[in-house]
Amino acid sequence: MSNTMNTSVFKPIAPRPAPVNTEGPVAWVRANLLADWKTTLATLLIGGVLLWLVPQLLNWGVFKAVWIPNFDACRAEGAGACWGVIVEKYRIIIFGRYPFDEQWRPLVATALLIGLLVLSCMRMAWKAWLPLVWLVVFTVFFTLMHGNTLGLSQVDTDRWGGLPLTILLASVSLVLSFPIALLVALGRRSNLPAIRSFCTIYVELIRGVPLISVLFMASFMFPLFMPPGVKIDVLLRVLVGITLFAAAYSAEVIRGGLQAVPKGQIEAAATLGLSYWQTQRKIVLPQALAMVVPGIMNNFISTFKDTSLVTIVSLYELTGAMSLALNSDADWRPFTIEGYIFIALIYFVFCFSMSRYSHWVETQVNKSKLR
Fold it and tell me: In whole numbers, what is the pLDDT of the chain averaged over residues?
């Protein structure tokens, strides 16, 4: 009897392909620009348009551009963009109708205000002394801008303009609108019918009209209801209008965050004996505001850009000052597009900075979810 032995032959497994690299610029291009045939086709079409358009823009805006303030050179045949108009008119664009010899005052005031805004965005400055710094900076700002003290000549608010006015309108309206929006959002969720109805009417009334109507009412209609001899400065009326308008939109954003907080947490806080305001301050608001950071910042950016509408009430902020600078001079009037590009760049710098700060805040408040 013979024993039959089964012998097995070793067969190596075929090598698998190397894993695809998912990091680096090549991987990003493969995943985002060449993922499939549709994406590849769109990439080729858009790339072709950019290859045709970008050289022309560079030729117009850089290589053939005129950088000196000479309108004869700007009008020469074959000349590109006339950036000399910015060199010639930048002081009027930036400072509006403010007296030429006194423009160091809005320059210093605006630098202080921007520095305050940057400081307020830093976590190390979130201390009890920050409101006092705001009060001091705004006192210095209005002292420099208005004058009539410390040997400074008086400059009425109707001559304020340009970038200082834009920064003032945006910063004051946003700072004042946030606490109003917070209270209105809480009021819309109140169990008291009178408070809830009042907040609802306020929000729906403001959101039902454009900002330009609010400014028109604040500037032209409101003084008609004042007693004879009582006059409120137009800048103050415009600030109130923009603040109330921004607060109504922010209130709805915050209300969305309040509704997203689970009701069980509020009930648990009640069983622990926490009062209404303790519950809101320690449990509800921290979560609600963290969830709506992008929406709030989006409203802030929109409000910053909407300050350009105050031109209709004869307050020449950045956009109005640019139009004033070029439309009043027939020689430079044809180069308005260069002026708009200049102020668009200023708006972009501020709005992009706000967007990146919003992203940083969102990252900070969501760190607990990453654990």
Answer: 86
Q: What is the DSSP letter of 147?
A: -
Question: Is residue 115 pLDDT above 80, yes or no?
Answer: yes
Question: 10 Å Cβ neighbour count for 318?
Answer: 24
| Residue position matching structure tokens 């700007």 | 74
pLDDT exceeds cutoff 80 at 20: no
> Which distant-in-sequence residues (6+ apart) come within 8 Å of 201 by Cβ?
none
State the Cα–Cα distance between residues 120 and 130, nearest whole angstrom: 7
Task: Output the pLDDT for position 316.
Answer: 87
- 61 contacts: CB under 8 Å, gap ≥ 6: 80, 81
30-39 confidence digits (pLDDT tens): 777 887 888 8
pTM for this entry:
0.83
| 338 shares its domain with 192 | yes
Q: Could you tell me if residue 19 is inside a domain?
A: no
Residue 225 to residues 154, 210, 230, Cα–Cα distance (Å):
29, 22, 10
CA angle 255, 351, 92 (to 5 degrees): 130
Residues 237 and 99 in one domain: no
* Burial of 222 (C-beta count, 10 Å sphere; 0-12/13-18/19+): middle
Region 206-210: what's the mean pLDDT?
89
Residue with structure tokens 């505001």?
A: 289
pLDDT band at 269 (very low <50, low <70, confident <90, very high): confident
Report how far apart, in Å, the C-alpha atoms of 330 and of each of 80, 85, 188, 278, 324 are.
Answer: 19, 12, 53, 63, 11
Quote the DSSP letter at residue 23: S
Give the domain-ending residue among 155, 180, 197.
155
Closest C-alpha among 168, 172, 246 to residue 207: 246
Instruction: Based on the fold, state whether residues 126 and 242 are members of the same structural domain.
Output: no
pLDDT number for residue 368: 63
Tokens for 9? Answer: 């032959």
Q: How many domains does the chain have?
A: 2
Contacts of 284 (CB under 8 A, 6+ apart): 258, 261, 265, 266
- The label of the residue with tokens 């907040």 reads 199
- Residue given tokens 């430079």 in the structure block: 332
155 pLDDT exceeds 80? yes
| Residue 192 CA to its chain's centroid (Å) | 35
Domain that holds residue 260: 162-370
Pull the structure tokens for residue 233. Answer: 């400065």
Cα–Cα distance, 341 to 272 (Å, whole number) = 58
